[in-house]
Amino acid sequence: MVVRVEILARPLCKDGCEWSVGVAGQLASGQWLNRFRRNARRTSGFAGLLYVLPALIILIIFEVWPIFFNLWISLWRWDVGPIRFVGLENFRRLFVDGFITLDYNNELAAGEVTRTLLVTVYYAIGRVPVTIFLAFILAFLLFMWVRRGRTVLRTAYFLPYVTNSAAIALVFGFMFDARIGIINALFDRVGLTTFTWLEDPLPFAKRVLFALGVENLDFWPNLAAGPSTAMIVIIVYSIWTSLGYNIVIYLAGLTSIPKEVLEAAQIDGADTAAIVRRIIWPLVAPVTFFLLIANTIGAFQAFDPIYVLTRRTGMGRGEAGGPLDSTLTITVYIFRNIYERANAVGYAAAVAFLLFFIVLGLTIVQFRLFSNRVHYQ
Questions:
Q1: In the chain, what is the straight-line distance between the N-terminal and C-terminal CA atoms, in Å?
Q2: pLDDT value of residue 296
Q3: Which of 52, 281, 344, 376 is buried most, with the most CB atoms less than 10 Å from its CB?
Q4: Could you give the CA distance from residue 323 to residue 304 in angstroms, rounded to a whole number?
């Protein structure tokens, strides 16, 4: 035993350290192995699970359990509670009648789910790219040319994001009112054509063409002509409220760029356009990638602006998504089936499952398409 201690201690004492003999003694006596086992038991297994248990409980209650409970509801004819077990009937109704149905002339037509998904896609296309583009431009201007008052401007941009969305929507509803709204008053003052805005179900592209004198657009179906005039108001509202958050995130990414890189590019004679295209935009690609995913998910889950701005223009009392369902997104469609249609909660749960997989699929596609083009520092 003594010989083994000396052999182990000899390389440890190469620099004259005195503690190496004690370490070698612990190795020889097995104390080190016992201490390693105690540390392993303390930092792994059930001991490690205790550290994450509070967060895990919250995640299971509010994220995992609702998914399985939603699946259970979708298998029933459900009102306030379960009425009758129907199996996959709600999903059959969703994927058969919801996507393609027959109109009054007994001809094939787009179903309710198809129309709501198309309206949702119009909303996402109108909101997401414009929000990201404007946020980058404003954040770049604040980063490059604003030295004093940057905090004040950043706070001003961020205020709409933290303000109550229902209150802001009511203000927008007043601004775009067809009779007493200030937007129409400004249009009338400068000689432009006024619109009925939130009361107009006609696609905005057709409305503009009509204002320019173009007629005979009956060959162009309204469903394929883009977002309605009412949806344009909702898109403008959504861009304004979410712009501040995107600006702050972009500013965080811009301030992380080393100043030496920008100064070196300026010394080499690069102009502002070249700096933005060759240096800044590639370096903030991770921020853009994150905002693209976050804004896309937010667009497909948007509910507050559509509900508050269009509740009074629906087909029935209190229905949102009007006029003529031209702003009926899939989230509002789910809400209608839960609260405004009898015994349709199970069907709404099936539609919610469809929305879940659509958002999941879009996120996976975005990761596959853009993750290889994002380079982290």
A1: 53
A2: 95
A3: 344
A4: 16
